[in-house]
Each structure stands twice: as structure tokens, then as C-alpha cells.
Design a protein that fits this description.
FRG-dom, elongated, FRG domain-containing protein, 2 domains, alpha+beta
């Protein structure tokens, strides 16, 4: 990731920085009011003493909103709706409109520097296979179930069936161990933790792959199928405009792999800043420049009521507009 400090920041100076660092037209932007935070979805953010039950939260939200089921047909539609209402998800909000990101960078926390992130979404995965893994990852609440869900996924079945059809051999390895070796090592770790009366450690899966061999005896490798890029990667997610706010904010999402179970790392969440390297730019906006930029945004037609079309935001705008202070 490239970090750039904007001196005497304004809309025009931020545009200049973007133009100097990106040549393509399709750029996604994200504004954060505090520079110190990285690009981590809320479901993966550490909160001392607590963690989220991701699968149960999704199921309860769907159960509580039956009237939404006509328009929200799959897990990804529901995740977008959860994000809309402030529930922690594995999504990050982005906009194709720089001014929208500047609004969220500068709307609050004037005592702290803010950040504008800019990325090239074309470099992120659009593999449809990744979607087949995300749903079972969300649902799994214990680690063996998570591994079994991956092994029983449509993608793994298709790959292994193809290898068998070619009359080749294969192995599935987790952390460079066969599944049997991995489970034996896991049992030893769990047994030690029980003896010491300490908390049971997580699996901490770092790699997960299918290796295709010419024959089981020769072990000549013909192909490797990396599952971590699906279960631990980042997908560019273009949601249908199911609610007006997404449309107004020119909204897009990144959908992040990884999994925490009971607050422990099962599959390490991806680091999008490291993945994109120079194609992820983080611009630091001084807190003292925020008020000035908000005034420029207002002049450009970017205000709370234009980004949030909900009735309560429109009512707030109308009230403020037509509240007249008495002359003293």
C-alpha cells in the first residue's frame, strides 16, 4: 500500500493525487474519519472481551425481516442489507464517487486525521467459485464443521472428480499436512491445552490446497488448486441497487474471506492493503482541513440528505433549512 499525506487538502488536491497514482478510470474509494484504522470489515475487528456469532446473527436477521425476502434472494443480498443497517458483516463499503468517500472521511472526528482509500477493483478476484465457500464459512460455528464444509463444497467435488476422470491421484493438504496428519497434530495441541487447563487454540489455517499427481507412487505434481484464494481472499462485489442508499452513494462492496470462531482465528482474514500493494493508495487528510472540505462538498451538492435518502434524513434537512433564528 502506498501512503500519501495531503497537505492543505481540498477536493482538487485530492483529485490531483488520485490522477497521479491511477491511470484507469474505474477506481473505488472509501473514506474513514480516523486515519489509524485499516481496511478491516467489522466482523473481524477485535473488541476486548467479546466476539460476534456471525452465522447466528445472519439467521436471526433473516428471520426478523420476512418482508425483505421477496427482494433479497441470496446471502450476499442479505449481507448488503445487514451492512446498510449497521450490523457487523464481512463487507466493506466503497464508492465509485470520490466526493462520497470524502464526505465520510470529513463528516466527523475533526480532532483526528482522516483517510481516503483508493483501489483498482479490477485486480480483485471475481471468481464465482469463491461465492460457494463464503456461505458455509459464515454458517460454521465450530472448526471441524468448517473444514468439512470446504471439503464437501461443489468446487472441491468438481476438481477431485476431474482428477479421478483423468485417472490421476490427488492429496488435499492443510498447512502442508495431509488431512490425517493435520487432525493428529490438532489433537496433540488440544490435549496439551486441556492438560494445562488453558483455552483451546484455533486451527489457524494458513494454506489449503488440492495437489494433483501423475500417480500416487510417482508423486509428480501436475497441478495445484489453491483454496485459500477463495476462502481467505477478497472479492469485488457489485450489489443490485436494492435500496436507494446504495444507488445514491454509488455503492460497491468488497467481500472478505477468512473466519473467526469463538473469537479465535480459524482462517486468517485477508489483508487487502498487502494484496494490492501499490494499487491501494491511502491518503491522509488533516483534521484541520475537514471543515473546509465539508464546505466544498456542500457547494458540490454532497450533503447528508443527498447521500441518505431515507425519510428521517430528509425531514432533518427540511427542519434545519426552514428553522429561522429570531433576531436579538
Amino acid at each position: 500500500m502506498k501512503e500519501i499525506k495531503a497537505s492543505d487538502a481540498s477536493i482538487s488536491s485530492i483529485i490531483n493525487i488520485i490522477q497521479e497514482n491511477f491511470k484507469q478510470e474505474n477506481i473505488w474509494f472509501r473514506g474513514q474519519s480516523k486515519y489509524k484504522y485499516n481496511l478491516q470489515p467489522a466482523i473481524f475487528r477485535e473488541t476486548p472481551g467479546e466476539f460476534f456469532s456471525e452465522g447466528e446473527m445472519l439467521k436471526e436477521f433473516i428471520r426478523s425481516q420476512p418482508e425483505q425476502s421477496a427482494h433479497h434472494k441470496n446471502t450476499y443480498d442479505w449481507l448488503a442489507l445487514m451492512q446498510h443497517y449497521g450490523l457487523p458483516t464481512r463487507l466493506l463499503d466503497w464508492s465509485s464517487n470520490l466526493l462520497v468517500a470524502l464526505y465520510f472521511c470529513c463528516e466527523k472526528d475533526n480532532e483526528e486525521n482522516g483517510a481516503i482509500f483508493a483501489i483498482n477493483p479490477a485486480l480483485l478476484s471475481e471468481d464465482v467459485e469463491a461465492y460457494t465457500f463464503i456461505e458455509p464459512l459464515i454458517e460454521c460455528e465450530w472448526e471441524n464443521y468448517g473444514i468439512n464444509s470446504i471439503l464437501e463444497s461443489k468446487f472441491v467435488r468438481e476438481v477431485t472428480d476431474g482428477i479421478k476422470f483423468r485417472k490421476h491421484a490427488f492429496e488435499i493438504k492443510i498447512n502442508n499436512k495431509t488431512i490425517q496428519e493435520f487432525y493428529r497434530a490438532r489433537l496433540e495441541i488440544v490435549g496439551t491445552s486441556i492438560e494445562k487447563n488453558s483455552e483451546e487454540p484455533g486451527f489457524n489455517i494458513e494454506n489449503f490446497e488440492i495437489i494433483e499427481y501423475e500417480t500416487a507412487e510417482s508423486k509428480i505434481i501436475l497441478a495445484r488448486y489453491d483454496l485459500i484464494r477463495f476462502i481467505g481472499g477478497v472479492i469485488s462485489f457489485k450489489p443490485p441497487h436494492l435500496n436507494p442508499r446504495i444507488r445514491q452513494q454509488h455503492g460497491f462492496f468488497t467481500l472478505h474471506g477468512g473466519k473467526l470462531i469463538s473469537g479465535r482465528t480459524f482462517i486468517k482474514p485477508p489483508n487487502i492493503e498487502e494484496m494490492l500493494e501499490e494499487n491501494c493508495v491511502k491518503i491522509e487528510v488533516s483534521g484541520k482541513d475537514k471543515i473546509k472540505i465539508m464546505a466544498e462538498l456542500k457547494f458540490s451538492g454532497i450533503e447528508e440528505h443527498t447521500l441518505f435518502p431515507e425519510i428521517e434524513k430528509q425531514a432533518k434537512y427540511i427542519k434545519n433549512k426552514f428553522t429561522i433564528k429570531k433576531k436579538t
